[in-house]
User: Fold this.
Amino acid sequence: MLKRRTLLLLAAVLALAGCTTTTTITVQASNETSTSSAESQSGASPGGSQTAQVGDTIILRGTENGLTMGVRVVKVVDPAKPSNNFFGPTKNHHFVAFQIELTNAGTKTYSDSPANGAVLIDSKSQQYDPDITDPVGPGIGSSVKIAPGDKRVGYISFEVPDGTKLTQFQFTLDSGFGPDTGQWEL
Assistant:
């Protein structure tokens, strides 16, 4: 299973080498199919959105040649309890934490603050940015360096009003400036 996923990641990386459009690239763990930018160009408009589910891996390109990351939302914790007593949510709010796995499938070292490229969207199309205090640990949001072939796992946390219906988690490399955006349905 691991070898097959590695081969799928490698195939997606090779398919991306010649791509220049901004789009979402998806590799779904559930049925082990992949969609590359080149395939999207033939059937969907550039910049079109494809979605994944929690547990699926999406391959994203960075702005630098050779920067390609597999991003997987491992699980969602709602409500999430902070790791320490110093940072709690505002009254009538709670934390939601996304455990993500970042796997470097490229040839360049990934060095970024992943939380800068993460957003959470609710059923009213309102957007929430991550909590900069990284209250649910172990956090991965503030700073990470991942060598080619290596991976990291940690939480990115958001503070949302109680009763909010969350619909999507989005992630983009390079502090939100990368050419591809991954989107997971909640």
The radius of gyration is 16 Å.
